[in-house]
Design the sequence.
């Protein structure tokens, strides 16, 4: 089992990608400097092979103004962002790209093309988002899910959110990811639905309705992250103090947690959408170069794991 621990966790991800082939990636509407610089930088590092989908003249104009070189990079010319989202998804469906990356269009516009019933990238799973966080005060990469897509997930939706995250962390070579299911308290309380869901998810894991991970919950944040806090409260748990994944009760809690880790704990965060046919790289204009590159690195690892899984199945 390989765990990415200690300082330089993102650098360890990049190091693992050095021996891997760059993955063809459809980049939807990279028509703003940061949205264009991200995939170009990731391409230069050998993580992805970007295919830029959008108005060619606009992309070239942005590159010229920003001093970015487009030498050797394929551009697929389409008139606007809506067409870019549809075409980027089409490239994935046709097998020309193995990853999808958001450019300077709205997330809803891209995901609308992804979930289109006849032309999208749907699977049997619900889409969910993961933040891959490098928290300086935590000993390994930490996944927070779902903090961006599912607003108030039902128990059944949490099953998919949890399974998506477990499968993703397994692709990072963590053999049996530990999942802390968060609530405000660590005891089951019928007046607090998040605790009921947490208990149900743990039982579903025991009955193999969720596979590949070790689940515990409900856990409050302190006893999820700190072995000492768990010990003081008398919690005997394989997960407490050592989770790979924090499964939050709803989007509001997850979004606040991720941003608190970023702005108060100086964490770096990468972002992916899971549950579609391929991982989807989500970046924002506020992301650092380090975070953008990390998003591409983890997506590359997931894409190669998907290749291996497909080859084993055939």
Sequence:
């Amino acid at each position: 089992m390989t765990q990415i621990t200690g300082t330089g966790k993102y650098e360890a991800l990049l190091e693992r990608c050095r021996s891997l082939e760059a993955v063809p990636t459809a980049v939807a509407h990279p028509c703003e400097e940061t949205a264009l610089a991200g995939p170009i930088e990731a391409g230069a590092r050998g993580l992805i092979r970007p295919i830029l989908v959008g108005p060619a003249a606009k992309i070239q104009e942005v590159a010229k103004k920003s001093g970015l070189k487009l030498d050797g990079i394929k551009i697929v010319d389409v008139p606007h962002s809506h067409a870019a989202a549809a075409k980027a998804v089409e490239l994935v469906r046709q097998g020309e790209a193995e990853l999808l990356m958001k450019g300077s269009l709205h997330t809803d516009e891209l995901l609308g093309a992804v979930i289109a019933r006849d032309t999208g990238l749907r699977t049997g799973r619900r889409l969910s988002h993961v933040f891959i966080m490098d928290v300086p005060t935590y000993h390994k990469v930490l996944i927070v899910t779902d903090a961006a897509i599912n607003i108030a997930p039902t128990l059944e939706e949490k099953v998919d959110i949890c399974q998506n995250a477990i499968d993703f962390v397994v692709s990072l070579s963590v053999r049996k990811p530990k999942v802390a299911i968060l609530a405000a308290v660590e005891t089951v309380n019928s007046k607090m639905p998040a605790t009921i869901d947490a208990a149900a998810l743990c039982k579903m894991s025991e009955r193999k309705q969720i596979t590949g991970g070790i689940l515990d919950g409900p856990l409050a944040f302190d006893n999820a992250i700190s072995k000492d806090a768990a010990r003081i409260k008398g919690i005997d748990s394989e997960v407490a103090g050592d989770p790979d994944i924090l499964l939050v009760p709803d989007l509001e809690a997850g979004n606040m947690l991720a941003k608190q880790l970023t702005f108060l704990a100086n964490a770096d965060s990468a972002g992916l959408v899971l549950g579609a046919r391929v991982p989807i790289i989500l970046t924002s204009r506020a992301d650092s170069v380090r975070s953008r590159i990390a998003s591409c690195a983890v997506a590359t690892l997931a894409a190669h794991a998907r290749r291996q899984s497909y080859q084993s199945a055939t």
